[in-house]
Structure formats: C-alpha cells, structure tokens
Design a protein that fits this description.
Blueprint: H1 2-29, H2 36-52, E1 55-60, E2 72-75, H3 82-89, E3 94-99, H4 108-114, E4 118-120, H5 125-142, E5 145-148, H6 165-173, E6 177-183, E7 199-205, H7 219-234
Parallel strand pairs: 1-7, 2-5, 2-6, 3-4, 3-5
Antiparallel strand pairs: 6-7
Helix pairs in contact: 1-2, 1-4, 2-3, 5-6, 6-7
C-alpha cells in the first residue's frame, strides 16, 4: 500500500512542487543575486516534499547555531531525502558543494548556479582543491555557511570514511565546523529505491568545533573528530 501511495501520490506531488518552485527560484534569481530568496524557496520546497512524503522530521540542537553565523556544516548522507530534511531544519542560510555533473542537467544546473551553490569536480584533484579554496573564500568574505557530505556521496549502510575537504575548508576560512547526524532517513528511502516510506527522522545538530588557531596540518585530526561526532549523533 505504501508503494502505491509513493508512486501515485507522493512522487507526482514532488515533481509538481519541484517544477513550480524551481521555476520561481530561477525567476527570483534575476532580482536577488545573493541567493537568499532562492534558499527561502528551497526551504518551502523541502517542507512540501517532507509533508507529501509523510516524513516527520524532528531537529535537536538548533540552539547550537547562530542564524547570523558562518559555519562549515558536515552531515552523513544515506538518502536523497537528507537534503530536504537539512534545508527544512537548519535555521540559517547555507549553500551546497554539488557535483559538477549536476550543473550539466537542464533546469537543475541553472538553479544551482544562480542560487550560489559551488561545483566540485571530484574526478580532478587540482579542480577539487580549487573548489574548496573558492568555498573557503566565499565563507570568509560573505559570511555564509556551506554544507558538505564528507563521505563523498550516499552510503548504503553505516558511515563511510570522511574525506578531508570539510576540515580543509573550515580551517582555511577560520570558521567553526558543525557535525550533524541524520538518523532514520535511510530506511525511508534507501539508496537505489523508488519506494518512499513514511516515518520519523531525527536531525541532531552538534556543538560547533572552533578552528581558530588551527593549521592545515591539523585537518586529519579535525576530520577524525568530525567523523566520531557525526557517528555519535547518528546513534551508531
């Protein structure tokens, strides 16, 4: 029964909301070059997606974040629905590091570019380093947060080893890095599945970890600390 609901109710409404609000977002980008309006529309989109999917998300630790602050946000990633959950629950403006290949997709690529998200070419080490340096510059100059999934993509189970990009960016920008654990989403929409199940999910926001005084040589230790914190917040 839940599969029928997913295919005949949730999926069509998700496509409709994505098309409508995505179009509004692109139009808004011609009037607001900061990307802030697009993010507010993305928050509305996220809440609609969660609602029509009958996914109830509870956030813990929102008080740990200053809505006017700048952070590097780090979360685990096991489902496509992680992104709507984070956009809906994190009480601040932020931008994503997105795979460069996504920018080649019509409509989606235009939205990502005009909303101020940052492309990453994971197939090229030099280009990836350039993207991370650009991300650190944006954070430092614009005082805006960025979100990364340091596993490098969705994971089918457990928590994969973290890449050091998030630690590098946080140290380079001199801003705190915040570990976030998403618990329960993977079972509602597992990797490779189109069956969207209803249920409860918890987004746990940890305490910001200061990076002032750290050097790039400290990124491995910071990366391990982030891994341990995210795993703890996930409940594993």
């Amino acid at each position: 029964m839940s599969l029928l609901r997913s295919l005949l109710f949730s999926a069509p409404l998700i496509l409709l909301a994505t098309s409508f609000l995505g179009t509004l977002s692109i139009i808004a980008s011609f009037f607001d070059g900061s990307g802030n309006t697009q993010h507010r529309l993305a928050r509305l989109w996220s809440r609609i997606l969660l609602g029509v999917s009958f996914i109830r998300v509870r956030a813990e630790g929102q008080e740990n974040l200053d809505p006017q602050g700048a952070y590097v946000l780090v979360a685990n990633h096991g489902s496509y629905m992680d992104i709507p959950a984070l956009i809906a629950m994190l009480p601040l403006q932020f931008r994503f590091f997105a795979k460069k290949s996504l920018y080649q997709i019509p409509f989606l690529g235009t939205h990502l570019k005009r909303a101020g998200h940052i492309p990453v070419d994971r197939s090229n080490v030099r280009a990836s380093l350039k993207s991370m340096t650009e991300g650190a510059r944006i954070i430092a100059q614009r005082r805006i947060s960025v979100l990364l999934f340091p596993e490098g993509g969705r994971s089918q189970e457990g928590l994969h080893e973290f890449k050091e990009g998030a630690a590098y960016i946080a140290i380079k920008a001199g801003v705190p890095v915040v570990p976030i654990g998403i618990a329960g989403m993977r079972r509602l929409l597992p990797m490779g599945s189109i069956h969207l199940r209803s249920g409860r999910v918890t987004v746990k926001i940890g305490h910001p970890i200061p990076t002032e005084g750290m050097k790039l040589a400290d990124r491995a230790a910071l990366n391990q600390r982030l891994y341990d914190e995210v795993r703890r917040l996930m409940g594993e």
